[in-house]
Amino acid sequence: MLHDAFVSAIHARDADAVKAALADDVRFLSPVVFKAYEGRDVVGLILTEGAMKVFEDFEYVHRLEDPAERVATLIFRASVNGRELDGLDLMRFDEDGKIAELKVMVRPLSGTNALAAAMGERFEALGLTPPR
User: Fold this and answer.
1) Which of 31, 43, 61, 91 could join 106 in a cystine, given CB atoms 3.0 to 4.6 angstroms apart?
2) Which domain holds residue 116?
3) Helix (H) or strand (E) holding 2
4) Taking all residues of the chain, what is their mean pLDDT, rounded to a whole number?
5) Cβ contacts of residue 113 below 8 Å, gap of 6+?
6) Beta-carbon contacts of residue 23 (< 8 Å; ≥ 6 apart)
7) How many independent structural domains does the chain possess?
């Protein structure tokens, strides 16, 4: 399946493999920022130094993929600072099987707020600013 390399990289916490699963011009749509982040370097940094650092007990619990359309939906559970959350990673893949777009959705609001606060702290520490 197209999503296998990314899922394996996330579960192994392998930052290089996560970045290798991304297309050069990947777009990342965050659950808490209006405009997309773009490019492998910044999206890779967000995933490996942001999400992989703030999510606790992260686990993909369901995976749905349509290879003909080159799309996948990965459903996950995790916690952030003691707040449990459920989420979706909606992925679109390019012709080379790399992730061209990654859209993340999270619920409930308390989990989303905890994620936004934790990621905000990580972004500040990394010197990342939201896209304008």
Assistant:
1) 31
2) 4-124
3) none
4) 92
5) 83
6) 40, 94, 96, 98, 99, 100
7) 1
